[in-house]
Automatic annotation (TrEMBL):
<dbReference type="InterPro" id="IPR035938">
    <property type="entry name" value="Hemerythrin-like_sf"/>
</dbReference>
<protein>
    <submittedName>
        <fullName>Hemerythrin-like metal-binding domain-containing protein</fullName>
    </submittedName>
</protein>
<feature type="domain" description="Hemerythrin-like">
    <location>
        <begin position="12"/>
        <end position="129"/>
    </location>
</feature>
<dbReference type="InterPro" id="IPR012827">
    <property type="entry name" value="Hemerythrin_metal-bd"/>
</dbReference>
<comment type="similarity">
    <text>Belongs to the hemerythrin family.</text>
</comment>
<dbReference type="InterPro" id="IPR012312">
    <property type="entry name" value="Hemerythrin-like"/>
</dbReference>
<keyword id="KW-0408">Iron</keyword>
<dbReference type="Pfam" id="PF01814">
    <property type="entry name" value="Hemerythrin"/>
</dbReference>
<dbReference type="InterPro" id="IPR050669">
    <property type="entry name" value="Hemerythrin"/>
</dbReference>
<keyword id="KW-0479">Metal-binding</keyword>
<dbReference type="GO" id="GO:0046872">
    <property type="term" value="F:metal ion binding"/>
</dbReference>
Length: 136
């Protein structure tokens, strides 16, 4: 299940759209790792991707939140809570459990990221797009 960026996912803010594209790339790295049957021990690579995901989303969410504050977006606090919840979920990943069932946990992580990113962009972030269009 590779996640492909489509222009209809764009919210019209170039920096944020580019960051969303990179989130798709991180998700696809997880997918590629899951599909790599030649690599018997994926633990180090999984940890590397999770670390990148956490660091990248923290920066991305700051960019998004700063933009929402700048435009006085009324849905800011709801977005902030969703962002914080995502970070908590990523921080709560049990690395020892991953080591016991690498493919199973990688699959769960992939479903979580793809589901969350798509749902968040298409529902929450599209609110930003609508707000920008209304206030122009």
């Amino acid at each position: 299940m590779v996640l492909k960026w489509k222009e209809e996912y764009a919210i019209g803010v170039e920096e944020i759209d580019e960051q969303h594209k990179h989130l798709f790339e991180i998700g696809n790295q997880i997918y590629d790792l899951l599909e790599n049957y030649l690599l018997p021990d994926k633990y180090d690579k999984i940890i590397q991707i999770i670390t990148e995901l956490k660091e990248y989303t923290v920066n991305h969410f700051k960019t998004e939140e700063d933009f929402m504050l700048k435009i006085k977006y009324p849905g800011y606090f709801k977005q902030k809570v969703a962002h914080d919840d995502f970070i908590k979920e990523v921080e709560s990943i049990d690395f020892s459990a991953i080591d016991q069932d690498q493919d199973g946990h990688t699959r769960k992580l992939l479903e979580f990221i793809f589901g969350w990113v798509l749902d968040h962009i298409l529902k929450s972030d599209f609110g930003i797009k609508s707000f920008i269009q209304i206030t122009r």
